[in-house]
Specification:
- The structure is a single chain.
- By secondary structure, this protein is of the alpha+beta class.
- It folds into 4 domains: 192 residues, no CATH class; 144 residues, no CATH class; 170 residues, Intergrase catalytic core (hpI Integrase, Chain A); 148 residues, no CATH class.
- Helix content is 47%, strand content 12%.
- The chain is built from 26 helices and 19 strands.
- The protein is extended, with a radius of gyration of 35 Å.
Length: 696
């Protein structure tokens, strides 16, 4: 055999084995100074090549592992590579060597779970593939099935039942079942020396390191895969297109590239099936598009990606570009009318769920607790929370803010004001990050970071944060209104922040600015939700009881809730929103344009020949209760002061007012509303109906 065959990549055998043996003949030593500076040097020690038994004590003497070894409490002392075929042993060593020196594996994992898995894999290979020259000669799909079958025959469990709050119980492969494929794929990746762009499966971590392509470091979606595209010419041009867009100056993110991979390959394969002789799209017609639209009728949301790709092949002068203009190939009517979510569907966390969460917050994983507080108190997207660094806390004029870049909307230096409690928490996180960080384990200086393991140098993953929240929900039975265990999603905290800001009186522009929304559209969804919430609260208050002042100015109940017609309720709400004027005694329902000549001075309770104004409504808001509490308190003090000075006229006048205030207060404190004249509302509605007025 001259070459190791890796799909379409041919690597000369000598280069392949030279890569493996030269790697195992030395290792990189990392020396970390007290100030966190890392220096690297190569130790030309062939320990890992020459020995088929690796000892934890030997490895623990290498500076990279000294700290881990000092804390090592495992019982495993060695790991054996006793394959009958020497070459297979070298390949497995090569893979595990990389996992060890990249900190993907700790000493504990390496000499416990990996030791057990490796022992079984060696037995399997010795029994089933003793004459194999290289693991990469195997058809991994067939070999993995053989591996699972072999494990089951040996009595080794390969699956386990897991529970998911959303999907219920499901079967998942155990570590040992995945071990063979993980070794194979790691070997494949490490020995594929082509430039990343040449491969059919791109790793964003490589593209980021070598070409500066940005990505959301708190996700685990590292790959885009072009292998599903059947026509090699189409594949080549589509890869070229995605590369151009990722490296270009436009706003084409890794996440957008992944969306294109969902739609365009499906289209290209469909055309290949219709026109198997084609190696370009020059002959593409409207008829092809119509057949494709029929084919994907239920998955048409990716059609826009297809349109942009076809249009850009013409703009970029690709040799495969359609000859017909895309304007006559695809029309706007071809895009599916995806129903927009109702404003009621904004996925925020209800108040009673929040109460349960914060009651049990101390039982949440300690690393997730501060993440929840930051998300809840700032409204940042989870990706931006997890991307906070040691420089995120700023102070200006004695007030603290969080300052960070917003990835999704490309906002630099976005600031969000925070309270002192959260500022103190972040200060502690920054302090801890500085203490534990160096240029090797946290070069970006994140405050929510993994210092070792497969995510070393990266923030906690979004999936992990959400998983811990939902584990808490199950453990502490955090339920929704109907008693089901609540399913937490990390983005819900952002929605919750927006709703709370509006409920607290913040205006739309302020909320838009704090959330760093690129446009007001999303912010307006929150506003409509808030308006609907206010309407429901308004109806709730009114339906508790409607009262009115009678001809003598006395309060009496007009009707129970079921007696209030919907059109009356609707008119009351619109008037409340659009026309009502707040005053110290309630809410004046006369138009703001001046229907009440006495509004400048507040005789609203006596304006109608000593009786309340017909347009007065009291109890429309919770503030009215506080107003009358204050009026009762101040009037009582006036009476006391008047008695001290013997002012009988003042005593009499204020006692009469006090009686009015107390009568109104006793009515509205239970949530009732008093209208000047309820029948007046009915007459207003009739007049509006005659005029054809329907919107307030």
């Amino acid at each position: 055999m001259d070459k190791i065959i890796i799909n379409n990549n041919l690597l000369p055998q000598s280069d392949y084995w030279d890569l493996i043996t030269s790697t195992l003949s030395s290792y990189e030593v990392k020396d970390i100074s007290p100030d966190g500076i890392v220096t690297r040097r190569v130790d030309n020690d062939d320990y890992f090549l020459a020995n088929d038994v690796w000892n934890v004590t030997d490895i623990g003497q290498i500076p990279n592992f000294v700290e881990q070894f000092s804390k090592y409490k495992g019982t495993g002392k060695y790991i054996k590579f006793t394959t009958e075929n020497h070459n297979i042993g070298l390949e497995i060593k090569f893979v595990l060597y990389h996992k060890l020196f990249s900190d993907e594996l700790s000493l504990s994992s390496f000499f416990s779970s990996y030791k057990t898995c490796l022992h079984k894999l060696v037995l399997f290979l010795n029994e089933e593939h003793s004459r194999l020259s290289s693991l990469l000669d195997l058809d991994i799909e067939k070999a993995e099935k053989q591996w699972i079958w072999w494990l089951n025959n040996k009595g080794v469990k390969t699956t386990q039942t897991c529970k998911n709050i959303k999907y219920g119980e499901y079967e998942n492969k155990r570590i040992v079942a995945n071990f063979f494929r993980s070794v194979y794929e790691k070997l494949f990746t490490l020995t594929d020396t082509r430039e990343e762009w040449e491969k059919d499966r791109w790793d964003i971590r490589v593209l980021n390191a070598y070409y500066g392509v940005d990505y959301n470091v708190s996700t685990t979606q590292y790959y885009i895969d072009f292998t599903s595209i059947e026509n090699d010419v189409f594949k080549m041009h589509f890869k070229k297109y995605i590369k151009t867009r990722l490296l270009g100056g436009g706003k084409f993110s890794w996440g957008t590239a992944r969306e294109y991979l969902k739609g365009v390959p499906k289209f290209l394969n469909f055309i290949s099936e219709l026109e198997p002789e084609w190696n370009d799209l020059k002959g593409l017609t409207r008829q092809h598009i119509e057949k494709y639209l029929e084919f994907i009728r239920h998955y048409a949301k990716n059609i826009k990606c297809v349109y942009v790709f076809l249009k850009d092949t013409q703009r970029f002068d690709y040799s495969i570009a359609p000859e017909k203009s895309t304007t006559i190939l695809l029309y706007s009517e071809d895009y599916p009318n995806l129903s927009k979510k109702s404003d009621d569907d904004i996925d925020y966390i209800p108040e009673h769920v929040l109460e349960q969460l914060f009651e049990n917050i101390n039982d949440l994983h300690p690393d997730v607790q501060p993440i929840v507080w930051v998300a809840f108190k700032t409204g940042l997207r989870i990706s931006d929370v997890l991307g906070l660094t040691q420089k995120c806390l700023v102070r200006l004029n004695g007030k603290y803010s969080i300052q960070t870049d917003i990835e999704k909307t490309y906002v630099k230096g976005h600031k969000i004001p925070i309270d002192d409690q959260l500022a103190n928490m972040i200060a502690v996180l920054i302090h801890n990050s500085k203490e534990h960080s160096n240029d090797d384990n946290n070069p970006v200086k994140y405050i929510f970071v993994r210092y070792s393991g497969s995510r070393k140098k990266k923030p906690f993953s979004q999936h992990w944060v959400q998983e811990k929240l939902n584990q808490l929900a199950i453990k502490k039975n955090i339920t929704d209104e109907i008693g089901n265990v609540f399913h937490f999603k990390s983005h819900q905290f952002r929605h919750t922040y927006a709703v709370k800001m509006l409920n607290g009186g913040a205006d739309i522009l302020t909320v838009q600015e704090l959330l760093a929304h690129a446009s007001p559209e999303m912010t307006m969804r929150y506003a409509r939700l808030f308006d609907d919430t206010k309407r429901k609260e308004f109806e709730k208050v009114v339906k508790q009881g409607v009262f009115s002042f009678d001809l003598n100015g006395e309060i009496h109940q007009v009707s129970e809730a079921e007696d209030i017609p919907e059109d009356i309720m609707d008119m009351m709400w619109k008037d409340e929103k659009l026309n009502a004027l707040d005053n110290p005694y309630g809410t004046c329902r006369a138009r703001v344009n001046g229907n009440c000549p006495l509004a400048a001075e507040p005789p609203c309770l006596t304006a109608n020949d000593g009786k309340p104004c017909f347009d007065l409504a009291v109890g429309m808001t919770s503030f009215d209760v506080k107003k009358y509490e204050l009026l009762i308190e101040t009037t009582t003090k006036w009476i006391e002061a008047s008695k001290e000075y013997g002012r009988e006229d003042m005593i009499k006048a204020n006692e009469k007012n006090l009686e009015r205030y107390q009568s109104i207060y006793e009515t509205i404190k239970g949530g009732n509303v008093i209208f000047g004249r309820f029948d007046r509302l009915k007459r207003q509605l009739e007049r509006k109906k005659k005029k054809g007025v329907t919107n307030g």
